[in-house]
Amino acid sequence: MSDSSAKTAESRQRELRGRHRHIEVRDLSVPSGWLTVVSNFVESVNDVLPVTSSPFPRVVVDAKEKYGSLRLNVQGTYDLSKDDALETLVDLHEDDAEATCMACGGPASEKASVGFTRRCDRAECAR
Ligand SMILES: [Zn+2]
User: Fold this and answer.
1) In this structure, are residues 102 and 117 in contact, taking their beta carbons and an 8 Å threshold?
2) At what angle do helices 84-98 and 35-48 cross, to 10 degrees?
3) How far is the CA of 101 from the centre of ligand 1 (A)?
4) pTM reported for the whole predicted model
5) Superkingdom of this entry's organism (predicted)?
6) Å from CA of 43 to ligand 1 middle
C-alpha cells in the first residue's frame, strides 16, 4: 500500500466516524477495502433510526474483520434482537463484505480469495 492510499483510508475512517451524530463508530478494525461497506451500513442505520432531539449517540457500531468475515455489532438504545430492520441491515452488509476485495473494495473473486482473505483478481490486490 502506498503512502497516499494509506492517508486516504485514514481520512475516510475519520469521515465515517464523524458523519452522523447519533451513531458512534467505536471500533473500526476493517481492511481499507471494506470501509465503503461499513460506510453504507452506517448510512442505512441512520435511515432507520427515528428522529430524536437527543444530543448523544444512541447507537454504537463496532465493525471488525474476523476470519475473512465482517462482524457488525450495534448497541445502544436499540436491542438488535428486537429490531428486524437493523438485523436485516447487519446481515446484508456482512454478506456484502464477503463479496468485496479487502484491498480495493472491488468485487472479490473465488479464485483470489484464499483462506480468510477476500481479494479480487487484480495483481496489485494479491498478497
Ligand atoms: Zn482488489
Assistant:
1) yes
2) 170
3) 5
4) 0.82
5) Bacteria
6) 23
Q: Kindly state the average pLDDT of the residues 7-23.
A: 75
| Burial per residue of 54-75, b for 16 or more beta-carbon CB atoms within 10 angstroms, e otherwise | eeebbbbbebebeebebbbebe
**CA 18–ligand 1 middle distance (angstroms):** 26
User: What is the tens place of the pLDDT at every residue in 104-118?
Assistant: 999 999 999 989 999
- Please state, in angstroms and rounded to a whole number, the distance separating the CA atoms of residues 7 and 37: 18
Beta strands, E only, the chain? 23-29, 59-66, 69-76
Section 43-53 average pLDDT: 79
Minimal CA–CA distance to 70: which of 30, 35, 24, 107? Answer: 30
Q: pLDDT, tens digit, for every residue of 18-44?
A: 667 788 888 899 999 999 999 999 999
Rounded Cα gap, residues 31 and 4, in angstroms: 16
